[in-house]
Amino acid sequence: MSNTDNQSRRSFLATGAGVAAAMLARPAAAGGNPANQPPNVPEWTKSLGEGVAVRPYGKPSKFEKDVVRRDVEWLTASRESSVSFTPLHELEGIITPNGLCFERHHGGIAEVDPADHRLMIHGLVERPLILTLEELKRYPRVNRIHFMECAANSGMEWRGAQLNGCQFTHGMIHCVQYTGVSLRTLLQEAGVKTNAKWLLVEGADAAAMDRSLPIEKALDDCIIAYKMNGEALYPEQGYPMRLVVPGWQGNLWVKWLRRIKVGDQPWHTREETSKYTDLMPNGKARRFTWSMDAKSVITSPSPQAPIRHGKGFTIVSGLAWSGNGKVKRVDVSLDGGRNWWSARLDGPVLDKALTRFYYEFDWNGEPLLLQSRVQDETGYVQPSKAELRKIRGVNSIYHNNGIQTWHVQANGEVENVEVA
Amino acid sequence: MSKSLKLVAATLLACALSAPAPAQQKADAKSGPRYHIGRVPTADEIRGWDIDVRPDGQGLPEGKGTVAQGEKLFMDNCSTCHGEFGEGNGRWPVLAGGKGSLTSDNPVKTVGSYWPYASTVFDYIRHAMPYGNTGSLSVDEYYALVAYVLYLNDVVTDQNFELNKKTLAAIKMPNEQGFVMDDRATSEKSFWQKDPCMKDCIAPVKIIGRAAAIDVTPEDGKEKKSRGVE
């Protein structure tokens, strides 16, 4: 059929009684352009599409253009020292696509030429070491899937519900598969001296961010990664190499890693004194709060992902994780935490990785107060916001792992609320 | 090759093959296999990058600067963001003030009110400042800048005070005792439970706050005003 034929047929149908009946039979929510829908045959079926390698590096469909990182401009003074958030409400499974992993920079994205990048290991070692990326890649490799969460994730919610969307309330997290070298392997190569207790890890960006890392963790499960989800790290994630510190706050995962100094005391750098310390109600601050407590959030429905289908079979989809190990169970409440039902974990349940959960039920169309609550393998149960505030007050900024409440309204719209 | 030499070679090969499977090992210079990949950096290479300093003064370079010298540097390099008195412009960090605010509803965490060690100021400024022009100052200028920031916070009170590796390491900060080790495992022990409650756990709840009422969520294509929170 020629294009002209199609046009005239469509005009005819649009005014005819036949199409009116067809429209009525179609579900109201389906929408779209009837000309592309049965009984018609859409344009993309009738003509050839682009050939191979026209898109040498693929990207999502143009219809997915809203699935992007977003920032909250009023949070910080400049974008070079700010954060963008992962669109959790649009994602499924446990792996975050590389281009959607949240960003946190202190001096912008360093565009590092790998030919000029060096990793130096020195201090209390028998044999100081300097490596190129190519040399790093010659060491034995490990592949590990881990979540990485900023300690300030949900930090804007301490004093009450503030941001309408899990992208903003919980989006400072991502989970990818890293390929790299066990930090222990490199420390053994350099020969760590017996009085070594701490490492200083430092980046090559304009902030040259430095942190102290205890040697026990360094020798346990840390990785110097150069690949994420199979391809080179993205520049905003520390290309060509970054530190991976499983289960611990994102600030320690130094990007653009250039230097590791072995010492016998912590350095008390700016990031571990003036920042990333948790101020308690008595005016004292907890320091070295490295591990990320067990936490969960329902990603859909959520404020940016309302229920569009009306009442009936409904899927609640969410994420749970723990810096202490594996997720053991997740429960979901429809009434703000009064009663709970076990959710179903689906997909891999890995150590210090995001875990996907589902709770499926028949929604009767009445308002809900949706919550999720994780328990990890150590028995830790995610606390309510009230329980958390009772101990930590509201000034700690970091480590808010309280239970999130979404208010699902009768029309399917969802909002971030506080309940009591 | 003699029989015994062959045996030696075979043993070496076996070692090499079994080597890349390290078991749990302690921090020990002798432990673990070696791959002989990479090289030893020269003393010059280490010196160029070895810029970290510790509270006990380890790492502080030779050099010096006074409060008065620092004031001029601060006006030229820092005051646009941090304000002439460290009060902070807009959302740029406040550097001074905030004493006694840590238990209040609005804690102001500055070098004077919060930072436990003076060495951190030197380490951070030399690593990351001036913002957008990292590392552009000399060691003497960094000492002078740190001296001025300490002066803004009444940690030093004499305009002629000279900061150097000895005087910096001797400085005690007002809030040094304001920190405790992470104690979540004990202070939050109640969060570990055997069986989480499933039924009639709490009285029926009501909505007591809404993000929509605050209205600070970014929306695509719309500008939102600052609420001025951390």
From TrEMBL, chain A:
GO terms for molecular function: heme binding; molybdenum ion binding; molybdopterin cofactor binding; sulfite oxidase activity. Pfam families: Mo-co_dimer, Oxidored_molyb. SUPFAM superfamilies: E set domains, Oxidoreductase molybdopterin-binding domain. Its cofactor is Mo-molybdopterin. The keyword Chloroplast does not apply. This is Sulfite dehydrogenase. Residues 106-267 form the Oxidoreductase molybdopterin-binding domain. GO terms for biological process: sulfur compound metabolic process. PANTHER family: SULFITE OXIDASE, MITOCHONDRIAL, SULFITE REDUCTASE. The keyword Phosphoprotein does not apply. Gene3D superfamilies: 2.60.40.650, Oxidoreductase, molybdopterin-binding domain. Keywords: Metal-binding, Molybdenum, Oxidoreductase, Signal. The gene is soxC. It comes from the Bacteria. Residues 1-30 form the signal peptide. Residues 287-404 form the Moybdenum cofactor oxidoreductase dimerisation domain.
